[in-house]
Amino acid sequence: MYKAAVIGDSASVSGFAALGLSVFRETEPDKITKLISRLAANDFAVIYITEPAAALVSDTIAKYRSSKLPSIVLIPAIEGNTGDGMRALHEAVEKAVGSDILN
Predict the structure, then answer these.
(1) Does residue 14 have a pLDDT over 70?
(2) Would you indicate the residue range of the signal peptide (predicted)?
(3) Which of 3, 22, 29, 61 has CB atoms 3.0–4.6 Å from 56's, for a disulfide?
(4) C-alpha 93: how far from its chain's center?
(5) pTM recorded for the entire structure
(6) Domains plus CATH for the chain?
(7) Which of 14, 9, 1 is nearest to 32 (CA)?
(8) 3-state SS class at 17
(9) 50-96 confidence digits (pLDDT tens)
(10) Are 53 and 26 in contact, with CB atoms under 8 Å apart?
(11) How many CB atoms lie within 10 A of CB 1?
(12) In sequence order, which ranges of 1-103 are alpha helices (DSSP H)?
């Protein structure tokens, strides 16, 4: 069975444990990169990552962009958001539907 995880700073991700997600409180780039690789190899289908954490490991995330699994989804953090998550969502919707219906 596939699993879901969330990665980011403690304040931003702690609440996700109540939803049954595996929570990883990590903010160091090297550790995040290794964690994503480990999760991908262990049946995690979806990895949610806060925007600030994703900004630290953009090269690692890019490697999985063309992979079927895991899907890496950027989510806003308590602070330090870049807007990358919303831009990625608009791009995905436009690619799937043919136009950006979110605007």
Answers:
(1) yes
(2) none
(3) 29
(4) 17
(5) 0.85
(6) 3-97 (3.40.50.10580)
(7) 9
(8) helix
(9) 999 999 999 999 999 888 899 999 988 888 777 877 777 677 767 76
(10) yes
(11) 4
(12) 10-13, 29-40, 51-56, 58-64, 84-97
